[in-house]
Amino acid sequence: xxxxxxxxxxFELRSFGVSTWFARKMHVDVSRVRLFFIYGSFIALGSxxxxxxxxxxxxxxxxxxxxxxxxxxxxxx
Length: 77
Fold this sequence. Notes:
This protein is mainly α. 69% of the residues lie in helices and 0% in strands.
């Protein structure tokens, strides 16, 4: 394995799944979301990376953000 393959494998194993989660929510291909973050980072001087890290934090700690259960009907208030 060369260095590029090792780096790619490292990031694939350690990724947070943000791109996959966001692509499923938006019903688009995962590769398009990844390309958006890559190109957006070059164009906007890294601000999509900050958005990505915030989304990763929220996904890793979503049990904290889900404090109340969903109600089934209006009568369960």
